Amino acid sequence: MNAVTPPGGEQSLGPTARRMILGSQLRRMREDAGITRQEAGYSIRGSESKISRLELGRVGFKERDVADLLTMYGMTDPGERQQFLDMVKESNEPGWWRRYGDLMPSWFNDLVGLEEAAARIQVWEPLYVTGLLQTEAYARAIMSHGRKDMVNEQVDRRVALRMRRQKMLSRPDAPRLWLVLDESVLHRPIGDREILKGQIDYLLEMILQPNISVQILPFDRSGYSADSAFSLLRFAEEELPNIAYTEYLTGAHYIDKRDEIERYSRALDMLAVDAETPDRSRQMLLKRRAEI
């Protein structure tokens, strides 16, 4: 039984991805040993649902619990055990976004960590420019509901968090970002004319990067493939499943079931076919920029 070593070097993965990889390895070891989740939970003074959460990487690991599970699953080699437990420690280290923990709902924490680890991020946005490509002014207008009197320190920190998330797009190993944007977004008056003009300018600048593609879905083709925003995150590591992410007013869903992922993937394919090509989309951005 070999302990997990993340592909691409240990520094390439954040704590969220590490937890998911370790959880996946624990699940495989448990299944290979013929042990049920209920039995495993009992051995660490927990429940079947606790084991499920651990195996999905949805919660932090306690070293004592993992050490007990490794013993139960038959990993006895001291070197392999230590390597696994060292990764457990690293998976519990806080990511850079923890400094914004007071601003972020618990369900949003994992998204930031998963974005950091993703190889490809595909996004459908029918209402706004995606947060990963927003300007400060555009983000501030959204977060203050378009009211300058509502801009305060908390809003400014939320904007700073959003800008910090965007830095991953300029890393040497940056993920590939592919955005399908509804044409209505280019006409929605977020903030004022100058803010919208600046946002379109920024999109025109960002699509020059080799890892960023934007397609515009024209008005007359909207509303057929998907009616609400979602993201699909894909990873280079075999241990990590593709994950679809969608928000609602008070939370978010993280979807990793294969049949459901297939539906999101097909929806993105249909959106890409219906949308204008990246070159034609750039022309639409230039045209709209000239109209404002």
TrEMBL record:
It comes from Amycolatopsis coloradensis. This is Transcriptional regulator. GO terms for molecular function: DNA binding. It holds the Pfam family DUF5753. Residues 108-286 form the DUF5753 domain. It comes from the Bacteria.
